[in-house]
What we know:
- This protein is of the alpha/beta class.
- Helices cover 32% and strands 19% of the residues.
- It has helices spanning 14-17, 54-65, 105-113, 147-165, 178-182, 186-193, 197-211, 220-229, 233-237, 253-263, 303-306, 317-323, 342-345, 382-387, 392-407, 440-444, 470-485, and strands at 43-44, 47-50, 70-73, 85-88, 91-94, 118-120, 126-131, 134-138, 246-248, 267-268, 275-278, 283-287, 290-294, 296-299, 310-312, 331-338, 348-354, 362-364, 373-380, 416-421, 455-457.
- The strands form 6 sheets. It has a 5-stranded mixed sheet with strand order 1-13-12-11-15, with no helix packed on it.
Amino acid sequence: MDDQDRTPGAGPTRRKALGFGAGVAGMAAVSAGAAKAAPASAAKVDVVVVGAGFAGLTAARGLRAAGHSVAVLEADDRVGGRTKPGKIAGEVVDLGGQWVGPSQTRLLALAKEYGVATYQQFTTGRNIADLAGHRAEYEGEVPALDPAAMAEFGEVVGKLEALAASLPVPRPWQSPAAAALDEQTIETWIQANAATAAVRSALRMIVRAVLSAEASQVSMLCFAAYAAAAGGFSPLISTRGGAQDSLFEGGVWQLAAKMSADLGPAVTLGAPVTAIAQDAAGVTVQTPRGAWRARYVVVTAPPPLAARIVYDPPMPAARDGLTQRLPMGCVIKAHIAYARPFWREQGLTGLVLSDATEFGPWFDHSPPLGSAGALVGFFDGGPAQRWADRPAEERRAQVLKDVARYLGEAALHPTDYLEEVWTRAPLHRGGYVASAGPGVLTAFGPALLDPVGRIHWAGTETAEAWVGYIDGAIRSGERVAKEVSARF
């Protein structure tokens, strides 16, 4: 579509002079009379992309392939967003996102393009579950609960699958059932649908594991939509065949680094976007490293961080209301290295699910080659809130204490330890995803996706599939590149 088709009239009405958006979506938010002159020194491109995570890098590649010039502005000193490389005991690990499932086809295609191989998560042996006072070892995907609770767990999972299947993604607020689901928290739903303590505890742990939040903090509509975006509840929580099926040799972060290398000087690091002004002819994007002028801008930062940018004119009420109500999850990720994977000698996979510990769940993360051992796990939700501001040595002691409770004294003697406190990271403030409390999606949901004038939104929160995952971020970048290209 030609620019003039989306440019509002220049009449000097009081409404335009005050800078109000024309309608809730703000699709024609800027008048020609409100335009501010761009700095003479501003670099000029067709599209500015804010953020060099998987969404932003994918969007930039798609726009460039369509023949448009791009500039990618990244606040951090690295690319990758909520993925990040680290090194422990000489091995490269992912401090952020790391797993991939067979239905995460966009991420797998990217890995194939760059020649990065995957290997399956280690699952040979018995897992440990300790929920509501019942401790058991089991094999497979379904945690071993108190025998009286197992049948109920299956019934509740069936209800969750049915809810997920009923929701349209990425616009779950359009479902006839949306209002009823959005007026309650996940905890409210759990209390109404699960009678046994073990099933309730298992569901709360699952919520922590996938959203890094407490069940009492998140809308049931948000949770059901999250599962819907994964193709169902089971793919979301499963290892083999699910979201935790495989890992990348050398880590997933390298894919972001390879995309950035292809984009070359179009990517600028250390350039936090402080302000975006739009007018009848384009947008001006301000950073401490200078200004960029473009026809359009794509913002890929998660909603609560995108809200920290100063917009001129201000965001419409719906968009601003949304970003005030979408907090990031709270998560701390820890890697622990050992001389050998001693739990395998006990016939254990290393996977432990426990409601009696602060740290957890954790998984085997031993190198695919060699005899060294490693575990990777999380403080999620409430535990992450409690431990984020504690000294690192106290967190380490708690991690080792919790692991030793189930894997034995050998767990107290690692060869190396590495952690990432995402909740304290100044440019991220949490992970894996921003989630909504009750009433948010039905009241403000459309603002998550709808462009505001020349500003378009991407990021894993906006994906039509695998919301909260790297695959979802890639999909959102592909979608927004097509969306913006159609406006030229």
